[in-house]
Amino acid sequence: MSVMTSDTAHRSRVGVGLAIAIGAAFSFGMSGAWARGLIDAGWTPGAAVTLRVWVGALVLLVPTLIALRGHWWAVRRNVGMVVAYGLLAVAATQLFYFQAVARMDVGIALLIEYTAPIAVVGWLWLRRGERPTRRSVFGAVIAFAGLILMLDVVTGARADLIGILWALGAMVGAASYFLLSAQRDTGIPPVALAGLGLLLGAVALTLAGLVGVLPMSWTTGEIAYRFGSVPWFIPVLAIGVGATALAYVLGIVSTRMLGSRLASFIALAEVVAAMFFGWLLLGQLPDLLQGIGAVLVLVGVVVVKLGEPAASELVEPLPERPA
Predict the structure, then answer these.
(1) Which residue pairs from 207-210 have beta carbons closer than 8 angstroms and sit at least 24 positions apart in sequence?
(2) By three-state DSSP, how is residue 226 classified?
(3) Considering the entire predicted model, what is its pTM?
(4) Residue 283: strand pairing partners
(5) How is 155-174 classified by DSSP, letter by letter?
(6) Rounded to the nearest 10 degrees, how much is the dihedral formed by the CA atoms of 197, 315, 299, 276?
(7) Angstrom distance (rounded) from CA 150 to CA 172
(8) Among 27, 163, 194, which Cα is nearest to 97's?
(9) What are the percentages of helix, strand and coil residues in the chain, rounded to 5?
(10) By three-state DSSP, how is residue 309 classified?
(11) Which residues contact 276 (CB under 8 A, 6 or more apart)?
């Protein structure tokens, strides 16, 4: 009886985790299309991402402070991880992605970013000696072939090298997001990790702008999309609240429930969401060759994930709470 109850509870937990992960994927997926509207209207990627992260940080400020009551010891014990999350998983990932979106289609930029599972496999190999399986290597080859088609290299078209490099930088940030979010035994509540990461990311981006490292300019005029024009604060709120605050909390919760392996697999739904919003808001659709390449990238990443050992999770032992 107890075994059946435990098994039922496990299936229920996985089911809830899957629903939350899909919600996170579609929340994240809308950001690129909304941001492209701002960028086309004269916003720099730096300004768009900084305001996005600030909105998300302010939305989560009170929930973060409430969640951290009695848990500040966990933040002190994991300060390095929290800082890395804020700078890599938040600031760098979103900035690089917005820079890529400014130069290429939303869906293509995100597909490059979502080769992150391959980077995770490589990191685990170099860092922990977890040699990838033949299936993972085969999947990486498929994904690489898809990238070649997706970027129109075969037809001789001129690919935007700078945009590709920005997207690859976002891929590294996304890999760090999956690895850091999976550390579920740190004692830091999910909403607190998201809130602290967004706050640190917002401060870092603002400082970069103030010293002139990150160009920032914006306009308060209306922003044009496929369906018409809207006031500038509509896309800012859509990105900051829906695609940032909500998305990061849902992403951390689902990753801790499912583990980085399954969560990053389900997160591929973000690519579908990004292409949907890219079409809905901007009218962007890949051509036939790019579409075939996109399918190959998705198939390759799926094969990589299926080839990973089930135990490849970065879970730290729960630190003892100080008296």
Answers:
(1) 208/46, 209/46, 209/47, 209/50
(2) coil
(3) 0.76
(4) none
(5) TT----HHHHHHHHHHHHHH
(6) -30
(7) 19
(8) 163
(9) 75, 0, 25
(10) coil
(11) 29
Residues 6+ apart with CB under 8 A from 234: 223
SS3 229: strand
Angular region, 261: left φ>0, alpha ψ -120 to 50, beta rest: alpha
User: What are 65-104's pLDDT values in tens digits?
Assistant: 999 998 899 999 999 999 999 999 899 998 998 999 888 8
Least confident of 45-59, 79-93, 147-161: 147-161
Q: CB of 163 within 8 A of CB of 109?
A: yes
Counting Cβ atoms within 10 Å, is residue 22 exposed (0-12), middle (13-18) or buried (19+)?
middle
Residue in the structure block whose two tokens are 């607190």: 192
| Range 50-78 average pLDDT | 92
Tokens 């496990």, residue located? 10
| pLDDT tens per residue across span 253-299 | 887 787 766 676 677 777 778 888 988 899 887 777 777 877 887 78
Mean pLDDT of 109-118: 79
Say if residue 154's pLDDT is above 70: no
Residue with tokens 């829906």: 242
Tokens read off for 79: 């300060």
Cα 221 to Cα 233: distance, rounded to the nearest angstrom: 10
